Amino acid sequence: MTHLDGNAIGGLLNDVFGREATDASGRCRICGAENFVGALHVYRGAGVVVRCPTCHSVLMRFVESRDQVWVDLNGLLGSGLEPLRETRIHVVHSGQVVDGRAEP
Questions:
Q1: Helix (H, G, I), strand (E, B) or coil at 52
Q2: Considering only CA atoms, which of 62, 5, 12 is closest in space to residue 35?
Q3: DSSP alpha helices (H): ranges in the chain?
Q4: pLDDT tens for each residue of 1-26
Q5: How many domains, the chain?
Q6: Domain contains 67
């Protein structure tokens, strides 16, 4: 399967994180390589899988279902990417779903 670079999901990242995120950097949880999001390898299928260009481990996953987006960032360390607090975004962290709704 052919991959694209992280710039290919710039619009999705903007929707999820509320800002330009291809210039953000993060470290791979497995090999420790630090890369800008724009340099990561992106694979599209039923969802979007983002892999480390060094060790090919999964860093991020995005799945859109009707009016919701599920985001898994478990492969990233110290990314500094903070998702928008909207009802349609759910973040998976350490195997648990964190609801994306704003705090009252």
A1: coil
A2: 5
A3: 10-17
A4: 789 999 999 999 888 888 888 998 88
A5: 1
A6: yes
